[in-house]
Q: What sequence folds into this?
């Protein structure tokens, strides 16, 4: 009996070891303990680099060198068995690059600020989080081991900063008990080259009852922030700075006191300046001062007059598109219009509008589309709204890990192709089998266009179910919503046609784009068809370039989207099965099935709705 129990126990342990829950992400190095790793200096960061290489590198002994003659950034040079860098973090990035297979290269990051933005609330919930609760806040949070794993994963792809809380920020964030938590987190992240930042509630001093107002020009308010900055930097000397959502979707801001965004941002910038901190001020504003104006125009209307009026430690942070993280949007014209103030782009890794953690949608092609319009060298930084939670596999969907990975890799080098990144990730995460890698990378590369097709082809946008943004609701209209949240406001379908006229004859949003593109988008015959209904309202029998009518083309795209998911699901279900461990295969398979059902729902609901106008 005892014998039997023992063997059962051993089997159980073995199964546990083999269980593949995805927790290891792309970091699946096999322990080798072969390499001797030396360095001309010592520090906590350098010892991490040494430990990683000593444990996992197979190609011989390594020497690490700090070299003050290299350009002053996080870059590294790998030459033979030597990694050289100007900064300690560079040695760490070089170590991970070597483990990933990079050889004889010199590589420097395009963006100096490569940040995650967590929309994590202090109660542990996550706004638009689809992978469980927060790893930082709430009852179940704060396991130092987990946060260290998080740090390592980020460092392995070069992410060097993280905003720990939701932009819809609680004023409690800046109270002592929470700042002490931030200090603990910062301590774990620091050796991995990651700085912490916080989202702040603009009205904090007033909300905490410590000042009578939050007017940025009030002396007591300015003083309060200066004192607070001092307190923060005493706890966290390398604290990165604040991210601010002000006068947007009900958040307080300088506008509440008839002050401008520049007044608000500058007051905070002055408080952080002595310590080297920055302010990332979001341009995601609509409604407040521009009621009635086309929502996609409002950020430029609001911020262009303020361009050049910000302190030099303020960066304007703008979403890639002018609306809100849709499966496809043209880029935000803020990037054309704001010229005197540094800009950074905010991408959304969590797939709020792209099937959340239920759909396999690889986002790198979408982000690259953005960079094809907005050159990375114009930008001071890049932020990605994280898709990370307490789920065992971090991101809910195993393939959503690829978006975290891709974000980091593109933040380092936006010129990397989506395909290269997908293949890199697949080889590290699943298997190096080339047949598998070729097939699945192709599937990943097609997945975003498939999503656009089954959700919102040809420039349609924001026809999601109210609030949770998962399924379709093309008939969505409730008079008590803000009008900018109503699907019918965006597609404007009736018997005469469909689409939002943003041409010079409509809201003239086209005029916010730089010259050549403004004309291109304005003219219906030159407007790229993927943006057609974003910029134009057209009759159902409008002739597309291939000769089909708009209505036919719309149907074609919806069907194509569903067919792509059908194909992907089939492939995964049959041919790809034997390449993948049981647990991950099964979990992905189940989700692909859900995705397929949801894609069919999108097609049927949207076409059913539009049909009543197109074929009356
Ligand atoms: O995309 C929308 C989301 C909100 C979010 C907001 C923002 C954090 O639906 O949940 O709030 O944008 O970016 O501020």
A:
């Amino acid at each position: 009996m005892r014998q039997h129990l023992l063997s059962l126990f051993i089997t159980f342990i073995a199964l546990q070891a083999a269980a593949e829950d995805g927790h290891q992400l792309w970091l699946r190095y096999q322990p080798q303990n072969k390499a001797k790793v030396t360095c001309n200096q010592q520090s906590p960061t350098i010892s991490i680099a040494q430990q990683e290489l000593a444990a996992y590198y197979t190609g011989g002994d390594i020497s690490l060198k700090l070299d003050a003659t290299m350009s002053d950034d996080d870059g590294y040079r790998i030459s033979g068995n030597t990694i050289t860098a100007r900064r300690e973090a560079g040695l760490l990035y070089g170590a991970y690059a070597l483990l990933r297979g990079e050889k004889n290269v010199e590589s420097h990051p395009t963006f100096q600020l490569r940040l995650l933005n967590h929309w994590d609330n202090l109660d542990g919930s996550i706004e638009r989080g689809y992978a469980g609760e927060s790893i930082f806040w709430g009852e179940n949070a704060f396991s130092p081991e987990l946060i260290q794993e998080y740090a390592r994963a980020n460092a392995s792809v070069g992410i060097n900063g993280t905003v720990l809380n939701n932009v819809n920020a609680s004023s409690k964030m800046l109270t002592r008990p929470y700042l002490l938590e931030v200090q603990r987190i910062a301590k774990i992240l620091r050796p991995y080259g990651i700085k912490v930042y916080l989202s702040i509630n603009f009205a904090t001093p007033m909300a905490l009852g410590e000042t009578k107002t939050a007017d940025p020009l009030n002396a007591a308010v300015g003083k309060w922030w200066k004192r607070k900055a001092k307190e923060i930097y005493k706890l966290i000397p390398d604290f990165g700075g604040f991210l601010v959502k002000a006068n947007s979707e009900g958040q307080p801001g300088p506008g509440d006191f008839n002050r401008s965004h520049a007044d608000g941002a500058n007051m905070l910038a002055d408080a952080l300046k002595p310590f080297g901190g920055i302010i990332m001020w979001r341009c995601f504003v609509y409604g407040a001062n521009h009621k009635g104006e086309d929502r996609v125009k409002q950020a430029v209307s609001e911020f262009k007059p303020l361009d050049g009026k910000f302190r030099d430690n303020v960066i304007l942070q703008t979403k890639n598109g002018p609306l809100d993280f849709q499966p496809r949007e043209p880029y935000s014209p803020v990037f054309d219009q704001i010229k005197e103030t540094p800009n950074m782009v905010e991408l959304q890794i969590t797939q709020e509008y792209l099937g959340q953690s239920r759909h396999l949608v690889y986002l790198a092609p979408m982000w690259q589309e953005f960079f094809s319009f907005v050159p990375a060298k114009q930008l001071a930084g890049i932020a990605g709204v994280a898709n990370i939670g307490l789920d065992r596999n971090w991101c809910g969907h195993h393939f959503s890990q690829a978006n975290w990975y891709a974000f980091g890799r593109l933040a380092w080098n936006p010129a990397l192709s989506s395909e290269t990144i997908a293949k890199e990730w697949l080889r590290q995460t699943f298997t190096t089998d080339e047949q598998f890698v070729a097939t699945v990378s192709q599937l990943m590369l097609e997945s975003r266009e498939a999503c656009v097709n089954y959700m919102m082809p040809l420039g349609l946008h924001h026809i999601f179910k109210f609030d949770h943004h998962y399924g379709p609701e093309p008939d969505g209209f409730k008079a008590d919503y803000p009008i900018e949240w109503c699907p019918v406001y965006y597609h404007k379908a009736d018997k005469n046609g469909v689409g939002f006229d943003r041409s010079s004859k409509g809201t003239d949003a086209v005029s916010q784009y730089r010259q050549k593109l403004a004309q291109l988008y304005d003219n219906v015959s030159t407007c790229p068809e993927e943006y057609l209904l974003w910029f134009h309202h057209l009759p159902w029998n409008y002739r597309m370039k291939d000769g089909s009518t708009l209505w036919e083309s719309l149907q074609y795209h919806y069907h194509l989207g569903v067919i792509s998911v059908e194909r992907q699901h089939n492939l995964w279900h049959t041919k790809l099965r034997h390449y993948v461990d049981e647990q991950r295969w099964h979990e992905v398979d189940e989700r692909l099935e859900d995705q397929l059902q949801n894609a069919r729902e999108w097609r049927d609901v949207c076409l059913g709705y539009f049909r009543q106008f197109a074929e009356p």
Notes: Residues 250 and 288 are 9 Å apart (CA to CA). DSSP finds 19 helices and 13 strands in the chain. Confidence is low (pLDDT under 50) at residues 12-17. The two ends are 76 Å apart (CA to CA).
